[in-house]
Specification:
Helices cover 37% and strands 23% of the residues. It starts with a strand and ends with a strand.
Amino acid sequence: MKNFILKGDICYSKTINEICCSENSCLICENGKSAGVYREIPEKYKEYEVYDYSGKLIMPGFIDLHIHAPQFAFRGTGMDLELMEWLSVQAFAEEARYSDEEYACRAYGLFAQMLRKSVTTRACIFATCHVPATKILMDCMEESGIVSYVGKVNMDREAPDTLRESDAYQSADDTVKWLESISGKYKRTFPILTPRFIPSCTDELLSELHKIQEKYDLPVQSHLSENPDEIEWVRKNVPDSKFYGDAYDRYGLFGRGAKTVMAHCVYPVIDEVERMKENEVFVAHCPASNMNLSSGIAPVRKFIDNRIKTGLGTDIAGGHSISMFRAVTDAVQVSKLYYRLVDNTVKPLTFEEVFYLATKGGGEFFGKTGSFEEGYEFDAVVIDDGLYPLLEYMTVRKRAERVVYIDSEATGLEAKFVGGEKVV
């Protein structure tokens, strides 16, 4: 199903300031990539099969740049706690259960099934420190049809005995064994190096991970400047680092040669922002988590103005919903609170800007993904917004905003394509 046409009401981003909309038009898929959007089918594509979704919305697939698969089972609970207590009471206790492979099969199977039914087409996913369970998660994600990076978590300090790896060298050795065991096994599921965060990783472990990153040419995912208590913890543990991000950068785990995505970035100092831009570090903005765990509001306008690569994440289970539609609306809403309560010189984010972050902005981490421009990977979702009748004509742009705010993916998702293959 690599060559075909979708017909419907199409909207996608080319730039951060505009959503391109084309009513009753045709989106061409050629060899798994977009060949563009047309009012009429060009002659050279006349023989392609047409999937007629007239009257329905066709959008690029959404990119979740930060999600914790082992936390999915307890999402929506413990939301009255702050980050550090929440990690101790909720997250670490649940993640320890993934030493049980039977439990991992059930939990990860449900996670992958639910993600498959969402508008998410690509994701950066944290697993746990358990190698067998991480491979189970990768198997589940491969079967889902979604393209993903999955990371075995590394942590050799400041964690319960049930999760803390015995030392840096055992953690690194397990990571290498995991990488060797999955080499060449998957088509759409890829490994990503995952030091949990600086408080849980010794200097020795970061040094070993740098060696692994270079040898296997891996991308990196972790957390950055999420919570004031966490930042103070980093300052005490790594007193000679200039700022939180510098603690990663000293070990080659902060962009440059290692493609990197850092979640949250709520309290970046000026030097950190400059380093992120210089190193081309991606930001995964997770607005629901920022609110639920009382972390604060990430200064996304600052990232945009400084041309820092930025996308969105649901951060299950710091975030309570797997829906990227919800992530979009939360991002707009918290930007308004930032404007009103933190700095009234910083204008709130527009729907156009956040739609871009959720698709093309985050999609850049995966390559040419997240748009219907020619040559982009053909990731698309079809949404039936007919469940919410209109009293009068509404533009495609307004309908797109409406379905995102109503969060209609659960009831309105009619079809989903990833890399030109239909997965829903």
